[in-house]
Design brief:
- The protein folds into three domains: 53 residues, Orthogonal Bundle (3-methyladenine DNA Glycosylase II, Chain A, domain 3), CATH 1.10.15; 249 residues, TIM Barrel, CATH 3.20.20; 120 residues, Rossmann fold (3-Layer(aba) Sandwich).
- Strand 9, helix 8 and strand 10 form a beta-alpha-beta unit.
- It is globular and about 80 Å long.
- The chain contains 17 helices and 17 strands.
- It is of the alpha/beta class.
- It is 40% helix and 17% strand.
- The strands form four sheets. The protein has an eight-stranded parallel sheet with strand order 10-9-8-7-6-3-12-11, with helices on one face. Strands 13-15-14-16-17 form a five-stranded mixed sheet, sandwiched between helices.
- Bound molecules: iron/sulfur cluster (SF4).
- Iron/sulfur cluster binds next to helix 2.
Protein backbone atom coordinates (compact mmCIF):
# COMPACT_ATOMS: atom_id res chain seq x y z
CA UNK A 1 0.00 0.00 0.00
CA UNK A 2 1.48 3.35 -1.02
CA UNK A 3 2.03 5.87 1.79
CA UNK A 4 0.90 9.47 1.58
CA UNK A 5 3.39 12.36 1.73
CA UNK A 6 2.50 13.06 5.36
CA UNK A 7 2.90 9.39 6.34
CA UNK A 8 6.32 9.35 4.70
CA UNK A 9 7.26 12.65 6.37
CA UNK A 10 6.59 11.14 9.80
CA UNK A 11 9.20 8.47 9.07
CA UNK A 12 11.90 10.95 7.98
CA UNK A 13 14.37 12.59 10.45
CA UNK A 14 12.56 15.98 10.16
CA UNK A 15 15.77 18.00 10.56
CA UNK A 16 15.42 19.89 7.26
CA UNK A 17 19.17 19.55 6.70
CA UNK A 18 18.75 19.82 2.88
CA UNK A 19 21.31 17.04 2.19
CA UNK A 20 18.78 15.37 -0.11
CA UNK A 21 18.67 18.45 -2.32
CA UNK A 22 15.20 19.48 -1.12
CA UNK A 23 14.61 22.47 1.18
CA UNK A 24 12.66 20.49 3.79
CA UNK A 25 11.93 16.91 4.81
CA UNK A 26 8.29 17.56 3.92
CA UNK A 27 9.19 18.60 0.37
CA UNK A 28 11.30 15.44 0.02
CA UNK A 29 8.44 13.34 1.43
CA UNK A 30 6.02 14.77 -1.11
CA UNK A 31 8.42 13.95 -3.94
CA UNK A 32 8.84 10.42 -2.61
CA UNK A 33 5.07 9.98 -2.49
CA UNK A 34 4.88 11.16 -6.12
CA UNK A 35 7.66 8.67 -7.07
CA UNK A 36 9.78 11.58 -8.22
CA UNK A 37 12.65 11.15 -5.77
CA UNK A 38 14.87 8.34 -4.57
CA UNK A 39 14.90 7.46 -0.86
CA UNK A 40 18.69 6.95 -1.07
CA UNK A 41 19.06 10.72 -1.45
CA UNK A 42 18.45 11.04 2.32
CA UNK A 43 21.54 9.67 4.09
CA UNK A 44 19.98 10.11 7.54
CA UNK A 45 16.91 7.90 7.34
CA UNK A 46 17.01 5.11 9.94
CA UNK A 47 17.13 1.44 8.97
CA UNK A 48 13.78 0.90 10.62
CA UNK A 49 12.14 3.73 8.68
CA UNK A 50 13.89 2.61 5.49
CA UNK A 51 12.30 -0.79 5.82
CA UNK A 52 8.87 0.74 6.31
CA UNK A 53 9.39 3.06 3.38
CA UNK A 54 10.82 0.44 1.07
CA UNK A 55 7.50 -0.64 -0.40
CA UNK A 56 6.36 2.95 -0.81
CA UNK A 57 9.69 4.08 -2.25
CA UNK A 58 10.01 1.19 -4.71
CA UNK A 59 9.54 2.37 -8.29
CA UNK A 60 6.09 1.53 -9.67
CA UNK A 61 7.71 -0.11 -12.70
CA UNK A 62 10.56 -2.42 -11.67
CA UNK A 63 13.90 -1.79 -13.33
CA UNK A 64 15.08 -4.73 -15.45
CA UNK A 65 18.61 -4.95 -16.84
CA UNK A 66 19.90 -7.12 -19.68
CA UNK A 67 23.63 -6.94 -20.35
CA UNK A 68 26.65 -8.36 -22.15
CA UNK A 69 30.26 -7.28 -22.32
CA UNK A 70 29.61 -4.02 -20.48
CA UNK A 71 26.64 -3.02 -22.63
CA UNK A 72 23.36 -2.70 -20.78
CA UNK A 73 19.75 -2.37 -21.79
CA UNK A 74 17.63 -1.10 -18.93
CA UNK A 75 13.88 -0.85 -18.86
CA UNK A 76 11.52 0.31 -16.12
CA UNK A 77 11.77 2.93 -13.35
CA UNK A 78 9.19 5.02 -15.18
CA UNK A 79 7.06 7.30 -13.05
CA UNK A 80 4.75 9.12 -15.46
CA UNK A 81 2.20 8.10 -18.06
CA UNK A 82 2.98 11.01 -20.34
CA UNK A 83 6.43 12.29 -21.17
CA UNK A 84 5.46 15.96 -20.76
CA UNK A 85 4.56 15.32 -17.08
CA UNK A 86 8.27 14.85 -16.34
CA UNK A 87 10.29 12.56 -18.60
CA UNK A 88 10.63 8.93 -19.64
CA UNK A 89 13.87 7.45 -18.33
CA UNK A 90 14.84 4.18 -19.99
CA UNK A 91 14.41 4.00 -23.77
CA UNK A 92 12.79 0.96 -25.40
CA UNK A 93 15.48 -1.67 -26.03
CA UNK A 94 15.46 -2.63 -29.72
CA UNK A 95 16.42 -6.26 -30.42
CA UNK A 96 16.62 -8.17 -33.71
CA UNK A 97 15.52 -11.80 -33.70
CA UNK A 98 16.98 -14.84 -35.44
CA UNK A 99 15.48 -18.32 -35.26
CA UNK A 100 18.03 -21.09 -34.92
CA UNK A 101 16.48 -23.01 -37.85
CA UNK A 102 18.27 -20.71 -40.31
CA UNK A 103 21.77 -21.68 -41.54
CA UNK A 104 24.49 -20.49 -39.13
CA UNK A 105 26.43 -18.64 -41.85
CA UNK A 106 23.29 -16.74 -42.79
CA UNK A 107 22.60 -15.83 -39.16
CA UNK A 108 26.14 -14.68 -38.45
CA UNK A 109 26.27 -12.56 -41.60
CA UNK A 110 22.98 -10.89 -40.66
CA UNK A 111 24.05 -10.44 -37.02
CA UNK A 112 27.20 -8.71 -38.24
CA UNK A 113 25.27 -6.37 -40.51
CA UNK A 114 22.83 -5.43 -37.72
CA UNK A 115 25.50 -5.11 -35.04
CA UNK A 116 27.71 -2.93 -37.28
CA UNK A 117 24.88 -0.50 -37.98
CA UNK A 118 25.58 2.96 -36.58
CA UNK A 119 23.70 6.08 -37.54
CA UNK A 120 24.41 9.60 -36.36
CA UNK A 121 21.46 11.65 -35.19
CA UNK A 122 21.85 15.14 -33.71
CA UNK A 123 25.38 14.35 -32.61
CA UNK A 124 24.55 10.94 -31.09
CA UNK A 125 25.51 7.57 -32.46
CA UNK A 126 22.48 5.27 -32.52
CA UNK A 127 22.68 1.47 -32.83
CA UNK A 128 20.53 -1.59 -32.24
CA UNK A 129 20.56 -2.72 -28.60
CA UNK A 130 20.75 -6.47 -28.75
CA UNK A 131 20.07 -9.84 -30.32
CA UNK A 132 17.14 -12.18 -29.74
CA UNK A 133 17.79 -15.85 -30.48
CA UNK A 134 14.82 -18.20 -30.65
CA UNK A 135 15.00 -21.98 -30.32
CA UNK A 136 12.99 -23.93 -32.83
CA UNK A 137 14.28 -27.39 -32.02
CA UNK A 138 16.88 -29.00 -29.81
CA UNK A 139 19.12 -27.34 -27.26
CA UNK A 140 22.37 -28.14 -29.11
CA UNK A 141 21.32 -26.13 -32.11
CA UNK A 142 20.09 -23.31 -29.86
CA UNK A 143 23.39 -23.23 -27.97
CA UNK A 144 25.45 -23.30 -31.17
CA UNK A 145 23.47 -20.39 -32.61
CA UNK A 146 23.89 -18.32 -29.45
CA UNK A 147 27.65 -18.96 -29.41
CA UNK A 148 27.98 -18.10 -33.08
CA UNK A 149 26.02 -14.86 -32.62
CA UNK A 150 28.08 -13.87 -29.57
CA UNK A 151 31.29 -14.60 -31.50
CA UNK A 152 30.20 -11.98 -34.02
CA UNK A 153 28.84 -9.40 -31.57
CA UNK A 154 28.86 -9.32 -27.75
CA UNK A 155 25.49 -7.67 -27.42
CA UNK A 156 22.76 -8.07 -24.78
CA UNK A 157 20.59 -11.09 -25.50
CA UNK A 158 16.99 -12.19 -25.29
CA UNK A 159 16.88 -16.00 -25.30
CA UNK A 160 13.59 -17.47 -26.46
CA UNK A 161 12.53 -21.07 -25.93
CA UNK A 162 9.41 -22.89 -24.84
CA UNK A 163 11.12 -25.89 -23.23
CA UNK A 164 13.06 -25.25 -20.00
CA UNK A 165 15.74 -27.87 -20.86
CA UNK A 166 16.42 -26.14 -24.19
CA UNK A 167 16.60 -22.79 -22.37
CA UNK A 168 19.04 -24.32 -19.88
CA UNK A 169 21.43 -25.16 -22.75
CA UNK A 170 21.00 -21.69 -24.17
CA UNK A 171 21.87 -20.09 -20.86
CA UNK A 172 25.05 -22.18 -20.60
CA UNK A 173 26.03 -21.00 -24.08
CA UNK A 174 25.39 -17.39 -23.06
CA UNK A 175 27.52 -17.66 -19.89
CA UNK A 176 29.12 -14.35 -19.00
CA UNK A 177 26.12 -12.34 -20.16
CA UNK A 178 22.90 -11.44 -18.38
CA UNK A 179 20.20 -12.32 -20.92
CA UNK A 180 16.45 -11.96 -20.69
CA UNK A 181 14.83 -15.39 -20.50
CA UNK A 182 11.66 -15.51 -22.61
CA UNK A 183 8.89 -16.71 -22.16
CA UNK A 184 7.55 -18.62 -19.20
CA UNK A 185 3.89 -19.60 -19.16
CA UNK A 186 1.54 -20.97 -16.50
CA UNK A 187 2.88 -24.44 -17.37
CA UNK A 188 6.60 -23.69 -17.40
CA UNK A 189 7.16 -20.78 -15.00
CA UNK A 190 8.57 -22.85 -12.12
CA UNK A 191 11.33 -24.40 -14.22
CA UNK A 192 12.06 -21.04 -15.85
CA UNK A 193 12.20 -19.34 -12.45
CA UNK A 194 14.79 -21.87 -11.28
CA UNK A 195 16.89 -21.07 -14.34
CA UNK A 196 16.47 -17.32 -13.80
CA UNK A 197 17.66 -17.64 -10.20
CA UNK A 198 20.56 -19.91 -11.13
CA UNK A 199 21.81 -17.52 -13.82
CA UNK A 200 20.76 -14.27 -12.06
CA UNK A 201 18.85 -13.38 -15.21
CA UNK A 202 15.58 -11.50 -15.67
CA UNK A 203 12.63 -13.52 -16.92
CA UNK A 204 9.65 -12.72 -19.17
CA UNK A 205 6.25 -14.26 -18.50
CA UNK A 206 3.41 -14.61 -20.96
CA UNK A 207 -0.32 -15.08 -20.33
CA UNK A 208 -3.51 -14.64 -22.28
CA UNK A 209 -5.28 -12.34 -19.80
CA UNK A 210 -4.06 -9.62 -17.45
CA UNK A 211 -5.34 -11.44 -14.37
CA UNK A 212 -3.39 -14.57 -15.39
CA UNK A 213 -0.36 -12.40 -16.05
CA UNK A 214 -0.62 -10.76 -12.61
CA UNK A 215 -0.99 -14.17 -10.98
CA UNK A 216 2.07 -15.43 -12.82
CA UNK A 217 4.24 -12.49 -11.77
CA UNK A 218 3.13 -12.91 -8.14
CA UNK A 219 4.15 -16.55 -8.16
CA UNK A 220 7.40 -15.83 -9.96
CA UNK A 221 8.25 -13.15 -7.40
CA UNK A 222 7.41 -15.45 -4.52
CA UNK A 223 9.76 -17.99 -6.10
CA UNK A 224 12.57 -15.44 -5.74
CA UNK A 225 12.80 -13.78 -9.18
CA UNK A 226 12.72 -9.99 -8.87
CA UNK A 227 13.34 -8.84 -12.44
CA UNK A 228 10.31 -9.76 -14.52
CA UNK A 229 9.11 -8.66 -17.97
CA UNK A 230 5.49 -8.86 -19.10
CA UNK A 231 4.15 -10.25 -22.36
CA UNK A 232 0.39 -9.64 -22.38
CA UNK A 233 0.15 -12.02 -25.33
CA UNK A 234 -1.68 -9.80 -27.81
CA UNK A 235 -0.40 -9.40 -31.36
CA UNK A 236 -2.47 -6.64 -32.95
CA UNK A 237 -2.16 -2.87 -32.95
CA UNK A 238 -5.38 -2.04 -31.11
CA UNK A 239 -5.14 -4.67 -28.37
CA UNK A 240 -1.49 -3.86 -27.80
CA UNK A 241 -2.26 -0.17 -27.30
CA UNK A 242 -5.13 -1.01 -24.95
CA UNK A 243 -3.30 -3.53 -22.79
CA UNK A 244 0.03 -1.71 -22.65
CA UNK A 245 -1.79 1.43 -21.51
CA UNK A 246 -3.85 -0.49 -18.97
CA UNK A 247 -0.77 -2.18 -17.54
CA UNK A 248 1.13 1.09 -17.24
CA UNK A 249 -1.89 2.85 -15.70
CA UNK A 250 -2.38 0.09 -13.15
CA UNK A 251 1.30 0.24 -12.23
CA UNK A 252 1.54 4.02 -11.94
CA UNK A 253 -1.87 5.14 -10.79
CA UNK A 254 -2.87 2.19 -8.59
CA UNK A 255 0.65 1.04 -7.61
CA UNK A 256 -0.50 -2.44 -8.62
CA UNK A 257 2.74 -4.31 -8.07
CA UNK A 258 1.89 -7.52 -9.99
CA UNK A 259 1.84 -5.48 -13.22
CA UNK A 260 4.62 -3.10 -12.24
CA UNK A 261 7.16 -4.45 -14.73
CA UNK A 262 8.41 -3.50 -18.21
CA UNK A 263 6.51 -4.85 -21.23
CA UNK A 264 7.99 -6.78 -24.16
CA UNK A 265 6.49 -6.36 -27.64
CA UNK A 266 6.83 -8.22 -30.95
CA UNK A 267 5.76 -5.88 -33.79
CA UNK A 268 6.83 -8.38 -36.49
CA UNK A 269 4.24 -10.84 -35.17
CA UNK A 270 1.52 -8.22 -35.68
CA UNK A 271 2.00 -7.62 -39.42
CA UNK A 272 3.54 -9.08 -42.57
CA UNK A 273 4.86 -6.05 -44.40
CA UNK A 274 7.65 -3.82 -43.16
CA UNK A 275 5.52 -0.66 -43.37
CA UNK A 276 2.93 -2.01 -40.97
CA UNK A 277 5.62 -3.45 -38.69
CA UNK A 278 7.10 0.03 -38.53
CA UNK A 279 3.72 1.49 -37.50
CA UNK A 280 3.25 -1.12 -34.75
CA UNK A 281 6.81 -0.55 -33.54
CA UNK A 282 6.27 3.21 -33.51
CA UNK A 283 3.21 2.78 -31.34
CA UNK A 284 5.05 0.40 -29.02
CA UNK A 285 7.91 2.89 -28.52
CA UNK A 286 5.44 5.66 -27.72
CA UNK A 287 3.18 3.49 -25.60
CA UNK A 288 5.14 1.62 -23.05
CA UNK A 289 7.12 -1.04 -24.88
CA UNK A 290 10.17 -1.65 -22.66
CA UNK A 291 11.82 -4.29 -24.83
CA UNK A 292 11.04 -4.73 -28.51
CA UNK A 293 11.87 -7.70 -30.74
CA UNK A 294 11.86 -7.20 -34.51
CA UNK A 295 12.34 -9.96 -37.07
CA UNK A 296 13.78 -7.78 -39.80
CA UNK A 297 16.85 -5.60 -39.73
CA UNK A 298 17.09 -2.82 -42.27
CA UNK A 299 18.33 0.76 -41.91
CA UNK A 300 15.04 1.93 -43.45
CA UNK A 301 13.15 0.34 -40.56
CA UNK A 302 15.57 1.11 -37.74
CA UNK A 303 16.66 4.67 -38.45
CA UNK A 304 13.21 6.24 -37.96
CA UNK A 305 12.58 4.06 -34.90
CA UNK A 306 15.89 5.04 -33.32
CA UNK A 307 15.28 8.72 -34.05
CA UNK A 308 11.74 8.55 -32.67
CA UNK A 309 12.93 6.77 -29.56
CA UNK A 310 15.60 9.40 -28.98
CA UNK A 311 13.03 12.17 -29.26
CA UNK A 312 10.53 10.51 -26.93
CA UNK A 313 13.11 9.57 -24.30
CA UNK A 314 14.75 12.99 -24.17
CA UNK A 315 13.99 15.03 -21.07
CA UNK A 316 11.59 17.72 -22.34
CA UNK A 317 12.98 20.13 -19.76
CA UNK A 318 16.54 19.64 -21.00
CA UNK A 319 16.72 19.96 -24.78
CA UNK A 320 19.60 18.19 -26.49
CA UNK A 321 22.28 20.83 -26.86
CA UNK A 322 25.60 21.33 -28.57
CA UNK A 323 28.47 23.25 -27.06
CA UNK A 324 28.28 27.00 -27.83
CA UNK A 325 31.29 28.22 -29.81
CA UNK A 326 32.47 28.54 -33.37
CA UNK A 327 32.32 25.52 -35.68
CA UNK A 328 34.46 25.32 -38.80
CA UNK A 329 32.73 23.75 -41.78
CA UNK A 330 34.52 22.80 -45.02
CA UNK A 331 37.82 24.36 -43.89
CA UNK A 332 36.79 28.06 -43.78
CA UNK A 333 39.22 30.86 -44.60
CA UNK A 334 39.40 34.54 -43.68
CA UNK A 335 36.96 35.46 -46.43
CA UNK A 336 34.39 32.77 -45.60
CA UNK A 337 30.89 33.69 -44.40
CA UNK A 338 30.02 33.86 -40.70
CA UNK A 339 26.56 32.55 -39.76
CA UNK A 340 25.02 32.57 -36.32
CA UNK A 341 22.48 30.16 -34.86
CA UNK A 342 21.45 28.67 -31.48
CA UNK A 343 22.80 25.66 -29.59
CA UNK A 344 19.64 23.50 -29.86
CA UNK A 345 21.01 20.27 -31.35
CA UNK A 346 18.41 19.87 -34.07
CA UNK A 347 18.87 23.51 -35.12
CA UNK A 348 22.65 23.20 -35.13
CA UNK A 349 22.68 19.97 -37.14
CA UNK A 350 20.09 21.26 -39.61
CA UNK A 351 22.23 24.31 -40.35
CA UNK A 352 25.59 22.54 -40.20
CA UNK A 353 24.42 19.74 -42.51
CA UNK A 354 23.15 22.19 -45.11
CA UNK A 355 26.39 24.18 -45.11
CA UNK A 356 28.46 21.00 -45.13
CA UNK A 357 26.42 19.54 -48.00
CA UNK A 358 26.80 22.73 -50.03
CA UNK A 359 30.59 22.32 -50.03
CA UNK A 360 30.94 26.04 -49.27
CA UNK A 361 33.37 26.84 -46.42
CA UNK A 362 31.84 28.74 -43.52
CA UNK A 363 32.09 29.70 -39.86
CA UNK A 364 29.08 28.64 -37.84
CA UNK A 365 28.79 30.65 -34.68
CA UNK A 366 26.65 28.88 -32.09
CA UNK A 367 25.32 31.19 -29.41
CA UNK A 368 24.33 29.91 -25.99
CA UNK A 369 20.53 29.97 -26.17
CA UNK A 370 20.04 27.41 -23.38
CA UNK A 371 19.34 24.68 -25.93
CA UNK A 372 16.36 26.36 -27.57
CA UNK A 373 15.60 26.66 -31.27
CA UNK A 374 15.88 30.06 -32.95
CA UNK A 375 12.31 31.33 -32.62
CA UNK A 376 11.72 29.81 -29.20
CA UNK A 377 14.97 31.26 -27.89
CA UNK A 378 14.19 34.66 -29.35
CA UNK A 379 10.69 34.64 -27.79
CA UNK A 380 12.20 33.63 -24.44
CA UNK A 381 14.83 36.37 -24.59
CA UNK A 382 17.67 33.81 -24.89
CA UNK A 383 18.75 34.71 -28.43
CA UNK A 384 18.96 38.48 -28.52
CA UNK A 385 21.38 41.07 -29.90
CA UNK A 386 23.38 41.11 -26.69
CA UNK A 387 23.97 37.34 -26.68
CA UNK A 388 24.84 37.23 -30.37
CA UNK A 389 27.29 40.13 -29.98
CA UNK A 390 28.83 38.43 -26.97
CA UNK A 391 29.27 35.26 -29.01
CA UNK A 392 30.97 37.18 -31.85
CA UNK A 393 33.36 38.85 -29.41
CA UNK A 394 34.12 35.88 -27.15
CA UNK A 395 34.94 33.70 -30.17
CA UNK A 396 37.32 36.35 -31.58
CA UNK A 397 35.60 36.45 -34.93
CA UNK A 398 37.34 39.74 -35.75
CA UNK A 399 40.66 37.88 -35.75
CA UNK A 400 39.32 34.90 -37.67
CA UNK A 401 37.87 36.71 -40.67
CA UNK A 402 39.00 39.63 -42.80
CA UNK A 403 35.47 40.89 -43.54
CA UNK A 404 32.81 42.21 -41.13
CA UNK A 405 29.62 40.56 -42.34
CA UNK A 406 27.44 38.50 -40.03
CA UNK A 407 24.51 36.41 -41.29
CA UNK A 408 21.61 36.00 -38.86
CA UNK A 409 18.63 33.59 -39.30
CA UNK A 410 15.76 35.09 -41.29
CA UNK A 411 13.35 34.29 -38.45
CA UNK A 412 15.05 36.89 -36.23
CA UNK A 413 15.39 39.71 -38.79
CA UNK A 414 13.80 41.87 -36.11
CA UNK A 415 17.18 41.86 -34.31
CA UNK A 416 18.87 43.71 -37.17
CA UNK A 417 18.74 47.22 -35.67
CA UNK A 418 19.77 46.19 -32.17
CA UNK A 419 22.65 44.09 -33.53
CA UNK A 420 23.96 47.00 -35.58
CA UNK A 421 24.13 48.95 -32.33
CA UNK A 422 25.83 46.09 -30.45
CA UNK A 423 28.29 45.39 -33.27
CA UNK A 424 28.88 48.79 -34.94
CA UNK A 425 31.81 47.50 -37.02
CA UNK A 426 29.79 44.70 -38.54
CA UNK A 427 27.31 44.62 -41.36
CA UNK A 428 24.36 42.48 -40.29
CA UNK A 429 22.84 40.43 -43.08
CA UNK A 430 19.52 38.62 -42.82
CA UNK A 431 19.85 35.07 -44.08
CA UNK A 432 17.09 32.66 -45.09
CA UNK A 433 14.39 31.61 -42.63
CA UNK A 434 14.95 27.90 -43.28
CA UNK A 435 18.32 26.16 -43.23
CA UNK A 436 17.43 24.26 -46.40
CA UNK A 437 17.72 27.57 -48.30
CA UNK A 438 21.23 28.30 -47.00
CA UNK A 439 23.22 26.66 -49.86
CA UNK A 440 21.51 28.84 -52.48
CA UNK A 441 22.00 31.92 -50.29
CA UNK A 442 25.69 31.16 -49.68
CA UNK A 443 26.39 30.67 -53.40
CA UNK A 444 25.52 34.33 -53.96
CA UNK A 445 27.26 35.58 -50.82
CA UNK A 446 30.48 37.58 -51.06
CA UNK A 447 32.75 39.07 -48.38
CA UNK A 448 32.63 42.54 -49.92
S1 LIG B 1 18.33 14.70 3.74
FE1 LIG B 1 16.79 13.64 4.98
S2 LIG B 1 16.81 14.74 6.90
FE2 LIG B 1 17.81 16.07 5.46
S3 LIG B 1 16.19 17.38 4.59
FE3 LIG B 1 16.36 15.63 3.26
S4 LIG B 1 14.85 14.22 4.04
FE4 LIG B 1 15.21 15.68 5.68
Amino acid sequence: MALSGIQIYKLLPQTNCKDCGFPTCLAFAMKLAAKQADLDKCPHVSDEAREQLAESAAPPVRLVTVSADGREVKSGNEIVLFRHEKTFYNPTGLFVRWRDSAPLEEITAQVKEAADYVVEYVGMELTIDGLAIEATGDGDRFAATIKAALDVAQLPLILMATAPDVMAQGLEAAAGTQPLIYGATAETWEAFAELAKKHAAPMAVRAETLSELAELTDRTKEAGVEEIVLDPGVRDLRSMLMLNTLIRRMALKKTFRPLGFPIITFPSECADDEGMVSIVATQAIAKYGGFMVLDQFSPALFYPLLALRTNIYTDPQQPIQVQPGVYEINDPQQDSPVMVTTNFSITYFSVANEVDGSGIPGWLLVADAEGMSVLTAWAAGKFDAERIAKSVKSNNMEQKVSHRRLIIPGHVSVLLGELEEELPDWEIQVGPRESVDLPAYLKLWSPS
